[in-house]
Amino acid sequence: MEMGNDVALSVRNLKTYIYTNNRCNRALDGVSFEIRQGKTLCIVGESGCGKSVTAASIMQLLPTLSRIEDGEITYHGPDGPVRIDALERDGAKMRAIRGKEIAMIFQDPMTALNPVYSIGFQIKEMLRYHTSLGRKDRHSKAIDLLRSMGIPLPERRVDEYPHLYSGGMRQRAMIAIAMSCNPRILIADEPTTALDVTIQAQIFELMDTLKRENGTAIMLITHDMGVVAELADDVAVMYMGNIVEAGPVGKVLRKPVHPYTRALLDSIPVLGRGKDQEIKAIPGQTPDPYNRPTGCQFADRCAYRVSACDEMPPETMVADDHRVMCWRYQEFMADAAE
Amino acid sequence: MLTYIARRLLTLIPMVIVISFLIYLGLELTPGDAVSHMIPPDAYGSMDEDRLQELRESLGLGKPFLVRYWIWISGVLQGDFGYSLAGGVPISKIFLDRLPATLELSIAALLISTVLGSILGTISALTRGSLTDQSLTVVGMLGVSIPEFFFGLVAILIFALNLEWLPVGGRTLPGYDSFWDRLPHLVMPAMVLSIMMTAGVMRYARSSMLDALSRDFIRTARSKGMPEWRVNILHGFRVALTPVIVLIGFRLPVLIGGSVIIEQVFQWPGIGKEFVSAVRSQDYPLVMMVALFSVLAVLVASLIVDLLTAIIDPRVRLGD
Amino acid sequence: MTDATVTRPRTRRDAQFDRIRDREAKLAGTTQRKGRFLSKFLNNRLAVIGFAIFAVICLMSLFAPLIAQHDPMSPNLRAIAKPPSAEHWFGTDKTGRDIFARVLYGGRVSILVGLGSALLSALIGVIIGVYSGYVGGWLDWIAMRISEIFMSFPQIILVLLLVAILGQSLVNLIVIFTLTGWGGIYRMARARMLSIREEEYVQALRSFGLGPARIAYKHMLPNALGPIMVNITLSTAAFILQEAGLSFLGLGVPLSIPTWGNILNAAQDLRVLEQNWWIWLPVGATISLFVLSVNFIGDGLRDATDPSQQG
Ligand SMILES: Nc1ncnc2c1ncn2[C@@H]1O[C@H](COP(=O)(O)OP(=O)(O)O)[C@@H](O)[C@H]1O
Ligand SMILES: [Mg+2]
């Protein structure tokens, strides 16, 4: 992987373990990817595979009983590269990056906003710490932000409390907070899972607009392949703490090389293909995170399992921008070429 | 907001009526001539039977129960609480004399336990699992387990009798009546009275704070790059505060109850001490009136707590 | 693979993490589930200690006649207000009665009052709360209003009011405590029922045509037992404290019967307080220790039965 200067953030061999209940959960076991400036990277995978932990590692918002064991997270900011994993968790340097350089929005807008403060307060709080705007300017900027997020009557709604906002409105407000300091990277962790389908589309449209207008790099976590096809430039497919396949959206969706990616794609209905299409659920369940297989994590559920799968496959480049973690990738590549 | 207050008041009124009714029932059923606590006792003593009978008529005692209740409650509403059997003092006068002392003690204890309890509970939550947290938890447990009056006895022994730093009891010495003269008298009773409540508030503040800190908006605040103090205090503590205030409101009766015993231990000249001697001497009118007013105090306190939470928490304020 | 130029300072937590990680690495592949239960048990060691203290004090009170060398009631004019000695372990009081014996015998009454009132009020509260919580309707409405009336009094004031009316006796005290104490557990049981009522299995039982009493007591009650147990322990502690307080005022159990509170009553006298510490200090400590142990048990029960308290 060449390090183009359009890379906003690179993660290399990241291992994050969680130590709750006196057990060790190897939530991330060697994850590498890059987020490119002005592009959207989608991370997909079943729940529990480590998507949120990846985001939390980047933001250093991990649970107390957890640790980045190994690997590098490098933010390529305007002032040169910063090793995020080496920063103190809630230290001043990390805080200067959070919100200002890398902002984040969360899955459930119902709970992600503080119920006892007005939306305006929660936006202005951000401006107060990351910009030099005065009190009045902060207020008008907050109104502008709400307006550009498509919230009607922003002058009035700025002083309202979250419980008066609908779910979609709250997520817009959340995005307003996240975008208020013009971050270079926006991390969105399943931002629409808690919302109605119609609202989902609006939120994604808003994010796409922001990306185009501001050149923000987006890391979008989702388990919706439809969204990936719509929005992504790059895709990373995760399974049990590994990225099993990654590459540009065209290649990964059209010519998937990893059996898990294929299974994921087979498990969703495609609009317009009629009701005769074959939908195959992925058999079995994800393994117990405390009792992971030693080899390929997907082996137990994989239809193509061979004895080699008892060992962890290496990450292999199948094209200069397409990477896979599977022993039998060559067979699948030939298959995909047909 | 005004309608909110009005509605809360309206729900309280039936309660007050029922309880005052029960209290009056108690007054009628307890031994003693009903006339005896409605007129000054020396007047009662000097009357012959005919005159008493006349008086009973005029006081409405021959009338049906509901009418008698009505006469009584109208009197109470106008400040005529009847007469104490002991010494024949008007009960309203006893209240006027003793209430300031009780209020002073309760409010001091309330302040101490609210402030100390929420600070210690917050510290405990923020240092969860540490030695500080564990010691505070055990100390809190001791606080709710040791009888308050036993604390009081030990405190008197140490600080008053042995070290002689503080007076043994009472509220003031004759002739020394300024606030600064009275303060040393207040220290021990207020501290001792606040112990149990402080421990309760602390335990509750800890769990409320832990709950608040585990919420999503805390992570949001961190993701915005806010400094830790702001995350913990402005976002965490602020949200944890509402349930703590509600708890304090719920616990006020315990505080009022505690003052009954603590006033006895420290010879504090308040209503509680008066109440205990009234119970001892079966001075029913006084006992009943104190009980009635303690209920009112509890109801008013719960009303105040409701208002406070409405002010603090926007969801309550607007969410009706 | 660690980059030497950027390493964070190691903390105590890092050492702990390393330990867990290394242990897991050794056990890789083997299923191992014991650790969780073991740690949970160890976490409850306060409850275990509490239970031990509770058991010791209860047993000593129960077997008071075997342990105590002296009669708790008979005065001994040759040993008045004597400090602790080999003969009188806790000394004697102002009429020469052996305090150790009085504490043991007093424990019987105090524990009886505390535990008895707690169980009785739980019985009443649960019977009414479980049924009215499940069935609702006018019965529920009335029970709720009555409990509201009881609970709008500060408990000790209501208790003293009833003492003034009913008079002082052991039985009266238990009755009064029960009367004033059932409201809390009633509300708790009722609230539990209201939430269990909506669960599917209850709907299923109803569709089988089971009667409301059977559903409520036989099928729903067991699911509310955890919080009820916690409530009983906590109200035992509260009642013992109240008995002590009332008896200290001389308004609880009649002074002729030794109870922990009655023994402490002597400390109202400042001279006793200052000069005869053995008359009141040991018994005060006993009450505190006992209540503490009950509270530890209650906390342990709460942790063990509350599924939301993990880790
Ligand atoms: N706060 C946490 N405490 C303990 N374990 C966690 C926590 N967050 C995540 N995990 C564990 O880390 C693994 C990855 O979880 P996560 O990243 O949340 O999955 P997802 O892909 O659904 O976002 C899971 O095994 C999960 O149990
Ligand atoms: Mg997630």
UniProtKB/TrEMBL annotation, chain A:
Compartments it resides in: Cell inner membrane
UniProt-listed InterPro entries: AAA+_ATPase, ABC_Ni/Peptide_Import, ABC_transporter-like_ATP-bd, ABC_transporter-like_CS, Oligopep_ABC_C, P-loop_NTPase
Domain ABC transporter: 9-265
GO biological process: peptide transport; transmembrane transport
Domain of life: Bacteria
Record GO terms (molecular function): ATP binding; ATP hydrolysis activity
Principal subcellular localization: membrane
Membrane topology term: Peripheral membrane protein
Keyword Cell membrane: yes
Sorted UniProt keywords: ATP-binding, Cell inner membrane, Cell membrane, Membrane, Nucleotide-binding, Translocase, Transport
NCBIfam families named among the record's database cross-references: oligo_HPY
Annotated family: Belongs to the ABC transporter superfamily.
Listed name of the protein: Oligopeptide transport ATP-binding protein OppD
Originating organism: Flavimaricola marinus
UniProtKB/TrEMBL annotation, chain B:
Keywords, sorted A to Z: Cell membrane, Membrane, Transmembrane, Transmembrane helix, Transport
Keyword Transport: yes
Main subcellular location of this protein, as a coarse class: membrane
InterPro entries referenced in this protein's UniProt entry, alphabetically: BPD_transp_1_N, MetI-like, MetI-like_sf
UniProt KW Membrane keyword: yes
Membrane topology type: Multi-pass membrane protein
Subcellular location per the Swiss-Prot or TrEMBL entry: Cell membrane
Domain of life the protein comes from: Bacteria
One Gene Ontology CC term in the entry: plasma membrane
CDD domains the UniProt entry points to: TM_PBP2
BP-aspect Gene Ontology terms: transmembrane transport
Protein name, entry field: Glutathione transport system permease protein GsiC
Protein family membership: Belongs to the binding-protein-dependent transport system permease family.
PANTHER family in the record: DIPEPTIDE TRANSPORT SYSTEM PERMEASE PROTEIN DPPB-RELATED
TrEMBL record, chain C:
Pfam families reported for this sequence: BPD_transp_1 (PF00528), OppC_N (PF12911)
Gene3D superfamilies named in the record: MetI-like
Residue intervals of the ABC transmembrane type-1 domain: 107-298
Entry's localization field: Cell membrane
Membrane topology per record: Multi-pass membrane protein
BP term (GO), one: protein transport
Superkingdom of origin organism: Bacteria
Residue ranges of the TM segments: 46-68, 111-134, 228-257, 277-298
Keywords: Cell membrane, Membrane, Peptide transport, Protein transport, Transmembrane, Transmembrane helix, Transport
One Gene Ontology term, aspect cellular component: plasma membrane
Chief location category: membrane
Entries under PANTHER family matching the protein: D,D-DIPEPTIDE TRANSPORT SYSTEM PERMEASE PROTEIN DDPC-RELATED, OLIGOPEPTIDE TRANSPORT SYSTEM PERMEASE PROTEIN APPC
Family: Belongs to the binding-protein-dependent transport system permease family.
Protein name: Oligopeptide transport system permease protein OppC
Gene symbol of the encoding locus: oppC_3
